[in-house]
Each structure stands twice: as C-alpha cells, then as structure tokens.
Amino acid sequence: MRYVVILAGGSGTRLWPLSRKGMPKQLLPLINGKSLLRLAFERSLALAPAQRILIVTGAAHAAEVAVQLPELPASNILGEPTGRDSLNAVAWAAAVLHATDPDAVIAHVTADHLIEPVETLTAVIETAFDLVEAEPRALVTLGVVPTSAHTGYGYLHRGAEIPGVPGAHQVVEFAEKPAAEVAEQYLASGEYWWNAGMFIWRADTLLEQLRLLLPDTYASVLALAAEPHRISEIFPRLFKTSVDYAVMEPVSAGRGSATVLAVALPVSWRDVGGFSSLAEILPADEAGNATSGTVTARESSGNVVLNAADGSLIALLGVDDLVVVRTADITMVTRRDRTEQIKDLVAAVTATFGDRFA
Amino acid sequence: MRYVVILAGGSGTRLWPLSRKGMPKQLLPLINGKSLLRLAFERSLALAPAQRILIVTGAAHAAEVAVQLPELPASNILGEPTGRDSLNAVAWAAAVLHATDPDAVIAHVTADHLIEPVETLTAVIETAFDLVEAEPRALVTLGVVPTSAHTGYGYLHRGAEIPGVPGAHQVVEFAEKPAAEVAEQYLASGEYWWNAGMFIWRADTLLEQLRLLLPDTYASVLALAAEPHRISEIFPRLFKTSVDYAVMEPVSAGRGSATVLAVALPVSWRDVGGFSSLAEILPADEAGNATSGTVTARESSGNVVLNAADGSLIALLGVDDLVVVRTADITMVTRRDRTEQIKDLVAAVTATFGDRFA
C-alpha cells in the first residue's frame, strides 16, 4: 500500500515572533488562514486517504497538528520528544508502517514550501510510486528544477539517466547550501536541481539500508515501532543525522544494497522561511507595504507589516523598509535587511526572559 | 477659605496611542506609575485639604479621575460635557465655590507639566494667596522664568513692578506661541515669562469681571451653580474662549474693575506633551534608547520605546531613532522626527476604523 509521511519537524526562529517554540512556522496560518502543514496535508490527500497519511512532528506540537488536521486519525501523528534530524524521522516512520504493512511504499513530503502547480507534484510522486513498485530497490529523491541561483537550498548534482528508467537520474553529489558564486555555476551548468528533501521508497528497502549502514539506528527504530511506550528512552539516544548524509550519499556511492534515483520536480517552489519570502506572497499596497491583518500605513513604504493579534491595529507613520510584527504578547520591529539576525534577537530575549517569549 | 482648582481638560493626540479619547494625557501613568493629574493633586494637597480641591475635566474622564484620586469627594469633580476652553472652566469653578463660600480664594493650577521643585511652586502660590487676601481686587497670573526660547508656550510680557507689592508686575502683553526668532528675542530681553496658565484670585472678583465683560457667561455659570442638573442645556451654549483673551487682557488694559498682577514662578517646567519630551524624563540605556515597560533593544539606538501592554514584550533589532509604542490594542511605529504628524495618523485611523482606535 502507498503511504504519505509529512515531515513537519523543526521550529525555526526566522519568523519570530509569529513562530514560537510552541507554534513553529509550518503550523502558522500564513496562507489565506491555512498553515503550510494544512496545505501539505491537502496535497497529500491526492495521493492517499487520511488513514494512510502520517505526520512526524515535535511532540510539543502534536496537539496543534491534531486540531489543524481533524480528518487525521490521532495515532497517525508521530511526536518526536526531541529533534533528531531527518534520518530518524524517516526511519521511525518506515519501522512503524513496515510493522503493519510489509509492502508499505512511502512518499516523504515536506511542509516548508509553497508548491505550484499541485497537480505536477502529485503526478511526479505518482510516477515515483510506480517506479518504486517496479524497482523495489530504488530510493527516489526529488529534485526541483531551479529557477534562480538560490543560496538557501541544498542541491543535487544530477548524473546520467538510468538505463531503462526514463526521467530517473543517478546522483553525483549531494551539495550543501552553496555560496552565491557557486550557486550561479550550478544554475548555469544545468546539471543541478534543488534538493527537495522529498523521498519515495519501500519501507523495507530503507530499513535494509539502515541495517547495513547504521545498525544501531535500525535496531532502535524497530524496537520503537514494537514498543512505542519506550519512546522517551529510545528516541533521545538515536544518532542525529540527515537522510542525505547517512543514507542517500553512501548508497549512491555503492555502499548499500539499493539504487538512488533522482527525478525532476518541475514546479514553482517557494520558501516561506523568512519575512522577505513571506512578503512576496502577501498582498502589497501601492507604496509596496506587504501587510497581513489590521494595519494602517501612512507615508510609509516597503514595509512588511504582520498583525497576528486579533482586534488590534498596527499603525505606521513615515517609516520605510521595516518589518513590524505584532502578536498577542510581542511586538517585533527590525529592518528588512536585518531579518537574518532575528535568531540573535531571540537568543537575547531568551537570555533575559527565559522561555517566556521564546 | 483657600481652594485649589486643577484644570485637567483637553485630550491631545500627540501621545497616541498611549493617550486615547477615553484616556487623555494627564490621566496616563507616565511618571513612576503616577499620572500628571495625580502629581498635580499631590502638589495641591500642600495648599488645601482634599475637600477644598476641585478638578475640572471632561465628563467622559470623571470616572477615571475618581479612581486616580480616591481621597477626593466625588462632588469635587466638575465634568464638562464638552470642552469650552479655559474661561468657562474657571468661571464655572468660581460660581460653584462662591455659592457656598462668598470669600472663596482660588488657585487654578494645571496638570500638563512636570514641575520642580514642588516646594517653590507651593511657596509662590502661598505668596499669591496672601497677596489676593491683602488686595481683594487682584487677578494674579504666574509666569515661569524661561530657561530656553521655547516655541510651544505662550509668553507674558512683564511690565513695571507694582508699587507697594514687591515681586508683582504689570502685564504689558499676553503673547501667543511665538516663532523661533521671536522666542529668542523674548528670551534675550529678559522681560518675558512663559505663561503658566495658573491663576490666583477671589471667586467674587473673577465673577465681577465676567459680569462687566461677558454678562452672558456670568449669568450662565451662576445658573449652572444654582441648578447643576441643567448642565447639558447650559454648558454647550457657553462662549468658547480663553481666560487670557476674555479676562486677563481686557482687565490689564483697564476694561474691568480689577488689577492684573504677574508673579514669577522660578521652577523647572517641563512639558510632557509629546514623545520627544516624554523621552527626556525616561531612563535611557547606553545606546540612548529611552524605554518604559518590557523592552529588548539589540543593535538599536536613539529609540523611544514605550510598552504599556502588561505581560508583553517589544523587541527591536537594528533600528534607530524610532518611536515604538505598544498598548493593549495598538502598536504605533514612527520616526522621532515625525511625531508632530501623529495627529494626522490618528485622523487616518479614525477615517478607516471610526472611534475604535481613537
């Protein structure tokens, strides 16, 4: 059977104070009142019924996930007591699904981006499901066809097309987020895709790679699937690492028993990671102020103004190029060119006030 | 008997959104948790017991005044249904006090400024009380000895000392707020004082001037004192004008039956009218940020940051010379050099949202 596992871990401080420890970015109602997780879930329903969709998220966010996805059975939320990076999220899901369905085929999707058209994403994943069902040893990774020399994404260096599998390529290299010059070279070469962090594989094939490459992790996730009550003992001791580093790279280099395939995902792929990217998807007034919620901007231009506090007003007079955010308990004001340092601001706030405003 | 009448009318939008329609500047807890009205009341207690202190304020603010001044008998609050400028405030108070005490002597004080030392103010008013008790026909006005060429105050042009009344001067002219150059000339001449808007006189002497100069107002305030229930009929029909224009100027020109005397008030006299002047009385951090309430400012300087919303945080990152104010329902952001236009911002907000945020 086919399953979709939505990877919705991570918190992220880049949208603070909209995002908070208890309300990470992917749960915020950013897009016409819907969260990125809700949008990912709705996309996933085109691939599998709710009963076969799992969410891997922080345990602290499980309750909010259940509220936002009322169609989802409660047991389909896997709450991580602590973040152990992407490998353990996919490994845990594989072990859980394999325990009840030895033929489980899983599409791992993310909840960090706006993706259009949805139909293309669905079609590509359907094709990848077909591919994995035909080639049980395939580990498929999706590569977004890049439209810019983005320095915020990892890249896949695409190799030769796999003989007999049209559209599927070898992967020469999994490259980290590049410097601007390097990103330009990647884009110009035509040989690189953005690493979508989306995977399609059989649960048993992934588990077999773990057994070969990371036997401790393999044993731990099997134990966790069999005895879920041991989670607080087992989970924190998992080795923290990424899928790409721990599985995809060594397997593509021949150290494993599977085949890594990269498939093109020709969609519009927009990060909603920070205020600048968020501003691009918000309506703007004639002075270029991107706003959300109740806002009055007078003789002000180029601001990003987000009012998430019901019943309140943000009023600007004579200011330009600021980011102003109001929530129920925080007002944050910075410049658009300083948003990369918001994490330092959050650290300073936490140093002073503890977790109260974190 | 001696009475103190605190003139606490006016609303003012220059401190919006701290000040609001229902919470004017003089009722805000700006100074170590105390309002300017509360400070004026405490100063007045050195001159008269609470039973002989009256407050003239907007009827809409009477309840808040009662909360802030629990020592005050409720009947000592005169609530104006609509603002009719300073003449009608002092005329109403004179009529009310004269009705029960024909020998009432009144000191009118304001609640708009920070005044130090308080002892000097008290001593000057005590001296003025003595003067009026010795010279029943005197109308005494106080002039603050200026320390700068302030363009935000009216000025008194001091004339010759009154023979036989040491320290009391004639007034040559009551001058409106001057242009900067004119203010410099005033300061250089040594002949001008800031018009404090504080007066000491016998109630019957003021009423007699009204009878001579403004007989309609005279009749109206006597009727109002005799039949307080007619306030909503009488008050709005009073002719709107200032004490200086309607009484002090014509009487000092000989059109009346009293003598205008100006007495020096050698105190520190600080306006708290706008955010810039408010910033001067707030503590500042080493980067020159003047703050009130819970605030974190990182790599930011010269800002005025006022957090009046309990339990909340204002966090700044990399911004300079802004004014940032957070209240329970409004966040306002402007530049320090734009605060004079806040009234226009309030007008724009009111045009959009009605009185909701006014």
The most extensive interface between chains reads: A-B, 36 and 36 residues
How much is the radius of gyration of chain A in Å?
Answer: 21 Å
- On the 0-100 scale, what is the average pLDDT of chain A? 94
What would you call the structural class of chain A? alpha/beta
Q: What would CATH call the architecture of the largest domain in chain A?
A: Alpha-Beta Complex
CATH class of the largest domain in chain A: Alpha Beta
Please report the distance between the alpha carbons of the first and last residues of chain A: 41 Å
Number of structurally distinct domains of chain A: 2
Low-confidence runs of chain A (pLDDT<50, min 5 residues)?
none
Report the count of strand segments of chain A: 17
Which bin fits the share of residues in helices of chain A? 25-40%
Oligomer: homodimer
**The biggest beta sheet of chain A, please?**
5 strands, mixed, barrel
Strand order of the largest sheet of chain A: 6-9-7-8-10
What is the count of helical runs of chain A? 11
CATH homologous superfamily heading of the largest domain in chain A: Spore Coat Polysaccharide Biosynthesis Protein SpsA, Chain A
CATH topology (fold) name of the largest domain in chain A: Spore Coat Polysaccharide Biosynthesis Protein SpsA, Chain A
Q: What sort of overall outline of chain A do the alpha carbons produce when their principal axes are compared? A: globular
Q: What is the percentage of strand-forming residues of chain A?
A: 25-35%
Element order, helices and strands of chain A? EHEHEHEEHEEEHEHHHHEEHEEEEEEH
